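Hey team,

Filing this mostly as a record. A colleague (T.K.) asked me to run one chain through the structure pipeline before their review meeting, and I want the input and output archived in the tracker in case anyone asks later how it was produced. No errors, nothing strange. Just documentation.

Input sequence:
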Amino acid sequence: MLKLAPILLAILYALVSYKFSAWKTAKTLDEQSTLLKDPELDGLNHDMASALDLPKIKVHIFEIEPINGLAAPDGRIFITRGFFNKYKEGEVTAAELASVIAHELGHVALGHSRRRMIDFSGQNAIRVALATVLGRIIPGVGVWIANMLTTMLAARLSRSDEYEADAYASALLTKAGIGTEPQKSLFKKLDTLTGSLGAGTPAWLLSHPKTTERIEAIEAREAKWGVTLD
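Output structure:
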């Protein structure tokens, strides 16, 4: 029984961590967000809602500066204030921002946003359990190995989710009559917009795929679907 203690404690830690993380995330988003209202974006959101047979797509602005889009575990979609400001300043088009919304809708529709919260808690539990076990077997190095293994696992799962959400967005944008060009053009701007975050980090440790690979995946889908460009 004592040998199972680290595993049982890790499971309990995962459950408590999940509940707390979900509560904290919802509370933060509630306190720091407002409903997005913009005539051009509202029109594009209406087109996507029609393509999904939904009455409306609500998007919120999360009042932080980093450039990002978010899909909350409860299904709400958020664009950060920093991203919205780039749109208002003309650095990002309405169609490009709509592609971000489509991508986040993909995370919700495919169950990524809720599962990620569970995965995050589970990965922390695995990290604790591995660090405990490996720390005894390989003192000093065991904790480092546990951190590396769980980081690699998290990055791999996240990259897979991003590709799936990209594919969902491509299909939705095409069905809505917006097309995939805004999706590709935004990817080409991302490194500049975000300050090349992750530059120099090995691809297998990045939580998002490289932008060039994401564009190549979109173009492969276009070829498969028979999409032609004017």
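Quick notes for T.K.: The mean pLDDT is 77. The longest strand covers residues 59-62.
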